[in-house]
Amino acid sequence: MTKQVLRVYNLDSGAYRDLIYIGRAENELLNASAIWFSGDTLNVYSSNSGKILRIPSGELFEPHPEIRSIPFPLGYSGLTVFAGGSHYVAMNVLSDSPLQFLLLDSGGAEMIGFGNYPETGSQGHYRETRLVYQGKLAASPDEAHIAYASSFGNVFRFFDISDPSDISLVREYRFTEPEYISDSDLSEHRYSVIWEKTCHRGTLAMAAADDGCYFLCDDTKTVSDDDWRMNSVYCFDWEGNPLWKLDLGRRTQSIAYNRERHQLIALTVSEQDEYVFVAYSL
Fold first, then answer.
1. What angle do CA 70, 59, 261 make, to 5 degrees?
2. Could you tell me if residue 128 is left (phi over 0), alpha (psi between -120 and 50 degrees) or otherwise beta?
3. What superkingdom does the record give (predicted)?
4. What DSSP state is assigned to residue 168?
């Protein structure tokens, strides 16, 4: 097993390289929670280390790339950066606010919370509800919209965030609710859930493009299935209108959008459990 948290691929040459050792030193991370490019820089955020490491993209395959360490608050889940890098959005995991999402400034400080959790009829604590509706986030390139997809069940939410003082939910789909049993003990401030065997797996990955957001999901997968990878991508515009569905025909672990080539890049797994990148023209 690699001792690094990141593997970088060159899709033209097929070359790859492992980067960033696991550890607590300045240029090491304990995990990789979010990865994104801003201009010509690769950014890797670690929720366990409380920092972002930045590497110039032109140095990714050099023997000793320059790595800059930027302090950033611990514990953010689903961290998503706006294209300009001036704001972030994250799932609300640690805050005392009962709202689902947090808008952060460029340094990671909380600016505002938004988004009520879907009504479930449950009397459970909101900290338990956070576990039920954990998920993925994506931001539109024009910084005007946020899309959310649940990791369990199939719940999609689309927000207009163009005015941070008046963030609004513009569309919501609740195709399948997460099925669970409460395992919380409120008297001891302990919050946990047990997934029902029939609970559907939700969205595995998301990718943002100019014309919409792509969701890697499969409405037939349950938590009891051994193979958790998926083979369908659903596309919605940023207002939440459905556009199309793409059957990838392969077990897929993650997706990304290549803006220059207008392609969807899928990280697939062969029957021999080998990783294969596949590009789909859009």
1. 100
2. alpha
3. Bacteria
4. E
Which tokens go with 45?
Answer: 């955020």
- Spatial neighbors of 198 by CB under 8 A, at least 6 apart, are 179, 222, 224
Instruction: Provide the CB-side half-sphere exposure for 138 (13 A, CA).
Output: 31
CA 179 from chain centre, in angstroms, equals: 21
CA 5 → CA 32, 141, 193, 199, 251, distances in Å?
A: 6, 27, 28, 30, 23
* Tokens (6 digits) for 55: 């590497």
Nearest-angstrom CA–CA distance, 197 and 106: 41
Strands 41-46, 51-56: parallel, antiparallel or unpaired by DSSP?
A: antiparallel
**The residue type at 213:** C
Report d(CA 60, CA 77) in Å as an integer.
Answer: 26
Question: What does the pLDDT look like over 93-148, one tens digit per residue?
Answer: 888 888 999 999 999 999 999 999 877 555 568 889 999 999 999 999 999 999 99
pLDDT bin (cut points 50, 70, 90) of residue 2 is: low
Write out the two tokens for 46.
């670690």
The reported pTM is: 0.92
Q: Tokens standing for 63?
A: 């023997």
The one-letter code for the residue type at 84 is G
Distance of alpha carbon 116 from alpha carbon 98, whole angstroms: 8
Task: Please give the DSSP secondary-structure letter assigned to residue 127.
Answer: H
Give the per-residue pLDDT at 1: 47
Tens of pLDDT, residue by residue over 67-88, are 999 999 999 999 999 877 789 9
